[in-house]
Amino acid sequence: DLDSSQASGEFARVFQPCPTGGPYPHSVWFDTRTLSDGVHTIQVCAQDYGQYVGLYGSGGQSCDQHTIRTDNSAPGAPSGLFVNSANPRRYMGHFAAQFSLPPNQGSPIAAVHYNVIDAAGDVVTPTQTVTGTDPTAVPNIEGPKRAGNYRLQVWLEDSVGFTGPVARASASRKAQKSSRSGNASPARARSE
pLDDT at residue 115 above 80? Predict the structure, then answer.
């Protein structure tokens, strides 16, 4: 209950102490879907009654500012996907893959998903997942036991859980001629 007089100004007639023991957290829901992916600054301000009326020159607000990162979109497909084999002269059931990460202003890549399909597009090696922060390779992929016309499919998942489109590269093994020194270089199959 407030009152005022010409001589004293504004004063309270009924007092109630402020609660003690804080902090007193409050939640505010903020929709980040309208923001672009990347780094933003968010500022939250509060004002008590004393600040509102300017008691003792305390006008204004108390503000707290933080940096936030938003991610509203899925990552792109991995680029430059290629398959490596330790022995290009014969089909091996194990091989590796390397790729580059797409530009991603949102959250880091947290997982790489992959499977192997045949010429008809049927999955012949079930989907597997490799986790890590911004991985650019899958070092050990188990493919079908028999040689054939296969393709490796790779897609990325960011740390928010968004998954991106698939990149494909041939995982077929064909014999390659050795170099003049007699050493064969690892086979590399580029992405499609």
Answer: yes
